[in-house]
Amino acid sequence: MLYLSFLALSFFSISNALSIPKTLAATNTTSASSASSTLGPTSQLNIVNANIAPDGFNRSTVLVNGVYPAPLISVQKNNQLTLEVVNQLTDTTMDVETSIHWHGIFQQGGTNWADGVSWVTQCPIQPQKSFQYQFNVGSQTGTYWYHSHYSDQYCDGLRGPLVIYDPQDPLKSMYDVDDASTVITLSDWYHTSSVQLGEIIGAGVNADSSLINGLGRYVGGPASPLTVINVQQGLRYRFRVIGLSCGPQFNFTIDGHRMTIIEADGNEVNPVQVDFLLVLAGQRYSVVVTANQTVGNYWIRASPNGNSTDGGINSAILRYNGAPNQDPTTTAGPYQLAFSETNLHPLTNPAAPGVPGPGKADVNYVLAPGLNTTTGLFTFNDKSFANPPVPVLLQILSGTTQASQLLPAGSVYQLPANKTIELSFPDPLAALGGPHPIHLHGHSFSVVRSAGSTTYNYANPVRRDVVSIGNLATDNVTIRFTTDNPGPWFLHCHIDWHLHHGFAVVMAEATDQVATEQVPTAWNQLCNN
Asked: Which of 131, 252, 445, 503 is flagged as catalytic?
């Protein structure tokens, strides 16, 4: 997602006959919302500029339907989604083109075109134009999210939760409440636009505050209202914790309450009890929390990169019914049950695909992370991703099926169909600013070697779609997946500032099959002159 303004933007204009509602001016003021109206499988998403002050600092933003976080999209297993994205952006101090990625949705069945990645699977949606994403979620269930995949635009506000509910959830007996009120989004927030922040070279862009369900406070700022999550004593809650971050990882805790992990990135796991969660950008967990404490107020803490939670900074409130309307006085800890990714094991079909053993997959790639300190660009195998002049998918549909001929040169890797793939990421310290959360589109993968571990587990490794590649020179995080989903799939660091500076590659899977797929006429029109 390296969206440098000089790359390819002059090649295309958008032709789209869909009608556009009246644009919301950038000067309008909209309150941040932790209880946005829920959207269903057939919905319209109006992408607008609006001023909000979720932490007490007012700024122009990019929002869905005028709220932050973007509205929850609530669907069920096997639903067909029809999502009309209407670009009403006018504030040219920020990016005004857009596209939306449905993070964690596989897009199986020939809908790679709907994956929403500008310059990989589509041309961006121009201002005052629309585009309709259509896809089926199939058998997928669990906790996901959606966000802009154009430049760093989601850091300006275009990000929100997406949940696929399962009426036959195998773990349903573990909880009493699972609805819109139990979705918890964690996000960093910036008082400066992403266009300006994206110009910072190197590893460091620092957030001004953290928001939980769209509200927070910043150091030196006012005692802005905080999100309150209400519970009834004695009930069990499935909290769906979503890392909407552009940068920091969050250490998530609830004073006085343990959490039982039952899902990681849309994959059910055998229940594991912990006192804290480490949530990297793009990651999601479902945890069961029992409201078994004295009626009162308890701090919910989401400490970014180990920062303080004093004075309600990086915090929200868990409030029992009957408790007074005031800030908690609870203290953090003790943290006795540590979180470890290696303790998470899939509830069903736990084995990693292929022959067990490092390097024994059908196709094995080493992707060595790096940072060119001269240019400030991140690399995989010494290549930095730059936007091609036309989307990778369009190149394939036009007849170019060999990765060696696809643009950007050196950043596209060929994956044959129906094979086991192993990717390893050695020495992550070669790329400053870690730990880096690596996300693969189009798949979940088995993490056969986790960060901080030297052990390989092919029997029952966690499956997920975002993994930390660690923060030790000895780390060599390794993942496995099967190529059962044709398409060009983006693999990238989900620290968006790093992605902006080239930390990505494309996995071109079964390109001969992709070349024969059909795409909607409106998709082609996105790239018309």
From this structure: 503
